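Why should sequence recovery work at all? Because a backbone constrains its sequence more than one might expect. Tight turns favour small or flexible residues, buried strands favour hydrophobic ones, and helices have their own preferences. The token representation captures these environments compactly. In the example below, the structure is given first.
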């Protein structure tokens, strides 16, 4: 039986009663070698205004103190025998959960105290079937690259559509029945599984809301090589493969018109530089393209200047050029890569044993 045709109630335990009649909430945290951030993540969940019923940490084959840290907080820990990826780990956490509402939080994410309450407030009256939040303005992680990437994510979320066709599993929530009806995350995907999950929700007739005040800090540390690897191998290429397979939609959130125009202008700049070597008067072309790129992204650059001053702008513009270069390269590479399967893989039938 396919996941989408499985009756939602077949795998659902009887949920406990929530405090003061509130729907019970299970928080699921997939973790791999997360000892540097997991403690802060769990402390933030414990400080939530909403009284969660349980926190389930799924240790995805870690070789550090991840399971020990989770156990020290008194939480339930499920241990995968090997590293299967975040999609698989979220699924096994959901299968073991007892809550009516599932909240997914990444191990390097620190949720605001009101984040879970905002999710429940939207889901409970039926205003949406799934919700996800936004990065905070300042994550408190020092370093130019970390600030730039956080500002970029925050800006995209804050200016995104209220009803996107995507999902962010770093800070997202939905009813357990909806999760089971869709078939959970596609475990065959190691990257962009939450984007594909959002597409599956929308195709199933469910509504997703981007709650811009439901915020969380991302504690991820970048260097340039890690940023390139994340944007290219973890985003641009797999996202393009999903688009080709028809398991994601173009023109929403990160792939909006501004992003498409920015990739095109970046490509035009490179072509202009190449052409100038042969035709001298084409030297103006890359300058015009870069001016256009700055114009298309003027609101983001202005946001960065307000946060960090005008000294932030030269580096931010260079990083925009690098980002959209990676997006363009990834789009080409994604079309040269094998197609993903057209159908989603079945969800695991039972969770692994507790660690």
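From this structural description, the recovered sequence reads:
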């Amino acid at each position: 039986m396919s996941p989408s045709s499985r009756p939602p109630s077949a795998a659902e335990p009887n949920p406990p009663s929530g405090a003061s009649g509130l729907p019970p909430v299970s928080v699921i945290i997939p973790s791999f070698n997360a000892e540097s951030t997991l403690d802060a993540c769990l402390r933030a969940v414990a400080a939530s205004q909403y009284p969660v019923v349980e926190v389930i940490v799924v240790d995805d084959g870690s070789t550090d103190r991840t399971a020990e840290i989770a156990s020290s907080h008194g939480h339930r820990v499920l241990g995968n025998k090997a590293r299967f990826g975040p999609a698989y780990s979220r699924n096994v956490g959901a299968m073991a959960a007892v809550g009516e509402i599932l909240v997914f939080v990444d191990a390097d994410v620190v949720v605001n105290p009101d984040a879970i309450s905002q999710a429940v407030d939207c889901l409970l009256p039926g205003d949406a079937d799934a919700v996800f939040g936004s990065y905070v303005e300042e994550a408190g992680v020092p370093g130019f690259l970390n600030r730039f990437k956080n500002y970029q994510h925050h800006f995209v979320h804050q200016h995104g559509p209220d009803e996107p066709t995507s999902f962010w599993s770093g800070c997202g929530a939905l009813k357990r029945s909806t999760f089971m009806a869709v078939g959970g995350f596609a475990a065959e995907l190691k990257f962009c599984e939450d984007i594909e999950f959002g597409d599956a929700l929308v195709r199933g007739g469910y509504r997703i809301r981007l709650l811009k005040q439901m915020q969380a800090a991302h504690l991820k540390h970048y260097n340039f090589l890690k940023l390139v690897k994340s944007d290219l191998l973890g985003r641009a290429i797999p996202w393009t493969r999903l688009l080709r397979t028809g398991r994601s939609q173009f023109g929403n959130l990160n792939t909006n018109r501004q992003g498409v125009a920015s990739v095109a202008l970046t490509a035009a700049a490179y072509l202009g530089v190449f052409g100038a070597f042969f035709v001298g008067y084409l030297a103006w072309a890359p300058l015009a393209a870069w001016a256009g790129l700055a114009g298309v992204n003027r609101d983001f650059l202005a946001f960065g200047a307000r946060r960090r001053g005008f000294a932030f702008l030269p580096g931010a513009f260079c990083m925009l050029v690098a980002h959209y270069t990676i997006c363009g390269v990834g789009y080409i590479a994604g079309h040269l890569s094998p197609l993903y399967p057209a159908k989603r893989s079945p969800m695991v039938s039972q969770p692994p044993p507790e660690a």
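A few observations help interpret the result. Confidence is low (pLDDT under 50) at residues 1-15.
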